[in-house]
Amino acid sequence: MENKGFDRRNFLKSAVAGGAAAVTVSLPQSATAQAQKPAAAPSGAGYTFFNPDEAAFVEALVDHMIPADELTGKGTDLGINIFIDRALAGSWGKGDRLYMQGPWKQGTPGQGYQLPLTPAELYRAGIEAANRYSVKTYGKLFDQIIEAQRQEMLAGLFAGKVEFENGPPARVFFTTVYQNVMEGMFADPIYGGNKNKAGWKMIGFPGVIQVHQQNIVNFKNKKFTVEPIGIADMS
């Protein structure tokens, strides 16, 4: 992948900063209606929420954001697509902890998420709008365009330069996706991502065991190599 400010190293360095982007724009009614359309049947074993077009989009996106290299496999090898699918199919995707009664007015970044959409609805409308943008700009769906075009499109979304027509705010959509990819990279593998604990091994994170406090001192400024332990290993 071309190093234009959106490669793996910069993704990891700027993940926290990227999650702080503003998500306070209200959504047009037409896009809300699109987000509420029923999904097609899920594609392939393992998908609960995504329909075939959505699965293709997310697989292409996570593989581009997390390419295979000497550190880890690509995004789909790590199960990041499955992590996102499970999250959207569950209570987070359904917005169980979100206030969804309105009024829907433009807020400030400090007020948090302000859209009249659940995360699942945001993804459904956002992927559809992103594919429309890709077809209009490059002549093909996002999963079918070449790597350089994906890089250009994602870099534009990251920088807030790409806008969707009749869809959710592109910056809000991308910020949500960006955060979810980061979560799928480093969450406990029991949730579908971070397969074989590859993300943890990459950064030297020991896992869920709470007896590593002494190593903060013993291994300060030194490489700490340990086989990480996840929730499933404790059962």
What does this 3D model show about the protein?
The protein has helices at 8-13, 15-18, 29-35, 52-65, 80-89, 119-138, 147-159, 170-186, 198-203, 213-218. It has two domains: 8-203, no CATH class; 207-235, no CATH class. Helix 3 crosses helix 6, helix 5 (80-89) crosses helix 8 (170-186) and helix 7 crosses helix 8 (170-186). It has 235 residues and is an all-alpha fold. The radius of gyration is 18 Å and the shape is globular.
Order of SSEs: HHHHHHHHHH
Q: What is the mean pLDDT?
A: 80
Number of helices: 10
Q: How would you describe the oligomerization state of the chains in this entry?
A: single chain
N- to C-terminal separation? 39 Å
Radius of gyration: 18 Å
Question: How many structural domains does the protein architecture include?
Answer: 2
Fraction in beta strands:
under 5%
Helical/strand content category: mainly alpha
Q: Unreliable segments (pLDDT under 50, ≥5 consecutive)?
A: 1-5, 13-45
Overall body shape: globular
Can you summarize this structure?
With 235 residues, the chain is mainly alpha-helical. It has helices spanning 8-13, 15-18, 29-35, 52-65, 80-89, 119-138, 147-159, 170-186, 198-203, 213-218.
Sequence-ordered SSE layout with sheet pairings:
Elements (H helix, E strand, L loop, with lengths): L7 H6 L1 H4 L10 H7 L16 H14 L14 H10 L29 H20 L8 H13 L10 H17 L11 H6 L9 H6 L17
Helix pairs in contact: 3-6, 5-8, 6-8, 7-8
List keywords for this structure.
235 residues; mainly alpha; 2 domains; 10 helices; disordered N terminus
